[in-house]
Amino acid sequence: MTRKMIFLAVAFLLLASPIFAQTPAGGGVLDLKLPFAYLAMGIAAGLCGLGQGKAVASAAEAMARNPGASGGIRFALILGLALIESLALYTLFISKIVT
After folding, report:
1. CATH code for the domain in which residue 59 is found
2. Res 18 pLDDT > 70
């Protein structure tokens, strides 16, 4: 465990060394908005997919256990899926505004 932590610390220090490099003569500023927008959208889309899968699996199990309540479960499922999907849409809009 200790060797792993030491290796990770050395790896982070080696990977972070370009941060301390001198900027070009033009004094250009490195713009990282777009890569972070891509990262945020990827994380949001991935987590939305996981959340939707979990919601559908739970709703299918609930409808199998209690077929009489399938109407209410289906309504809650559709409402929940819409709210989950709105996370990805909000992230898309925010990333478009920022970049």
Report:
1. 1.20.20.10
2. no
Number of domains comprising the chain: 1
* Assigned domain for 97 exists: yes
The whole-model pTM stands at 0.62
Tokens (6 digits) for 90: 């909000």
DSSP the chain: -HHHHHHHHHHHHHHHGGGGSPPPTT-PPP--HHHHHHHHHHHHHHHHHHHHHHHHHHHHHHHHH-GGGHHHHHHHHHHHHHHHHHHHHHHHHHHHHH-
Residue 49 lies in a domain: yes
